[in-house]
Amino acid sequence: MSNPVLVCALRGIDAFRALGAALKGWTQGRDRLSTGDSLPQALMALTPEVTFRQAILFFTEADLVTGKARFYYCLRKLTQICFSPSVGESWRCRAESLFSYLQAGAQLLCTVLLIKPGVWSRRLPRILRDLHLEKFSVVGMKHLDLEAAAASALLPCEVQQDPAAVEAHCTYLTSGTALVLCLQRPNAVKKLMDLLGPEDPQLAQALDPCLWRAQYGTSTVQNGFYGSRSYPMAVRDVKLFFPEGLCCAQCQTVQEQEV
Fold it and tell me: Do the record's keywords include Phosphoprotein (predicted)?
């Protein structure tokens, strides 16, 4: 080619769909601005397999070690030089590059689903069946009576600003026994949020009657479920509700968060 190109390795949730949508919008805007070739053009890999093959052509393993992992990667290399290979090898688990993630495939993550009082006692078999169909594994389960402080901590920030709403939610959440599940699957947090739908059952009903809050909820207070809204919140919820640990062989991501 007569001109240089910029090659980027990008990482993100649902990366192929998100990048494809972004490039489509960018291309449409570019076409409106100019019909010539003066503005840059962009191409992307279409599958993880193609991404891996192309990444090997343009990048080394060290190039694709990011953030804190880069520090451990360099430290591992340094200890291999100054001491012995066996010492440096001990850092391998903390110095995984993006090549390793591409080879390993989707990473199993944990999230927390709390089934609110009055719902799980009537609908548990159907809920468990639907979780199985959505490829979730149950790696922790317990029923408990929530204290007011724990119930308040589960509420969205916008709800916590309204004392009346906080009282209504806490009164309901502490009115009976709740069932808490720790669930595991790739992209667990987003998949569970997509399954539950909006906090308001009426809005969920308008979007998709199959959403769980549309099926089981009756109001923004009695909407059937609480789910961890982000991965940091999922880690917090797992530690809160399952301090004794989980029944899965290992949950590496939660362990790393604890370090």
Answer: no
